[in-house]
Specification:
By secondary structure, the chain is α+β, with helices and mostly antiparallel strands. Helix content is 29%, strand content 19%. The structure holds 2-oxoglutaric acid and fe (ii) ion (FE2). It comes from Shewanella maritima.
Length: 279
């Protein structure tokens, strides 16, 4: 299996993109409307932030989950026992954001949310009728003005050689939300698991946009769109000294949105967070 990069400007882009999501759980877009210079500026600004002491003034609040999560308390993926080698910052428009970083990151949050609504309308349009009939409301409407959509700025620090045995930058996991939009990071490492259990690289040419299905859309589509496992592997050789910055936007429906006979977005999220032990 190989992930094809799809040109956003091509005539059959929407159909090809949704086909890729159905077959692999991932879709990769080039020539999309997200401004690459904005992404580059954000990577630069946040790299400086992660390398400053300023981050300690923005330590996350357990009740609201906005702010800085240091490596010492960072995530352990479901089913794993070793922590990931990463630190990150949770950006919500209603949350705390360092003043000098606000303008660019909120601009990114907004423009990527707008693109997400378009991508969800493509997904709806190219869902088979017997799948689409179960969507409780249009998919793009599920995320409208959602306060739950989370922009995570991730910093994977250079490897020091003293990392815990078996630790990797991000252990294999699935995302909980509806879809995730992720610009290619400044360094490689992202891999996706195929149906035959092989790990393949996600084409991460700088400028690509990577979209993946999360568990909530898998639930709402009764498995038609698979939430596939992905991970970020450690760099080798000289690349060990390099930081990696990435910027996933996790699109979350409004809490009251009905996903399936079993779950609303809120009950689904609560069940997953309880499993992860973070609430
Ligand atoms: O850093 C990446 O490229 C992917 C991060 C990711 O999968 C996640 O935070 O859920
Ligand atoms: Fe992920």
């Amino acid at each position: 299996m190989k992930l094809e990069t799809i040109d956003y400007r091509s005539d059959n882009c929407a159909e090809q993109f949704v086909k890729s999501l159905h077959e692999t759980g991932f879709g990769v877009l080039s020539h999309h409307p997200i401004e690459q210079s904005l992404v580059e500026t954000i990577y630069k600004q946040w790299y400086e932030f992660f390398n400053s002491d300023n981050k300690d003034d923005f330590l996350f609040k357990p009740e609201t989950q906005d702010g800085f999560f240091p490596a010492s308390i960072s995530e352990t993926a479901k089913g794993h026992s070793v922590k990931d080698i990463k630190e990150y910052y949770h950006v919500y428009p209603w949350g705390r954001i360092p003043e000098e970083l606000k303008r660019n990151i909120l601009k990114y949050y907004e423009s990527t949310n707008a693109l997400a609504a378009e991508l969800l309308s493509w997904i709806e349009k190219y869902s088979p009728a017997d799948v689409a009939k179960h969507y409780s409301i249009p998919l793009s409407q599920m995320i409208e003005n959602s306060q739950k959509t989370l922009l995570r700025v991730l910093h994977y620090p250079p490897l020091q050689g003293d990392e815990e045995l078996g630790a990797i930058r991000a252990a294999a996991h699935e995302d909980i939300n509806l879809i995730t939009i992720l610009p290619a990071a400044n360094e490689p490492g992202l891999q996706v698991k195929t149906k035959t259990d092989e790990w393949i690289d996600v084409p991460s040419d700088f400028g690509n946009l990577i979209i993946n299905i999360g568990d909530m859309l898998q639930e709402a589509s009764q498995g038609y769109f698979p939430s596939t496992s992905h991970r970020v592997i450690n760099p080798q050789g000289a690349d060990k000294t390099k930081s990696r910055i990435s910027l996933p936007l996790f699109l979350h429906p409004n809490p009251e949105v009905v996903l399936s006979d079993k779950y609303t977005a809120d009950s689904y999220l609560m069940e997953r967070l309880r499993e992860l032990g973070v609430i």
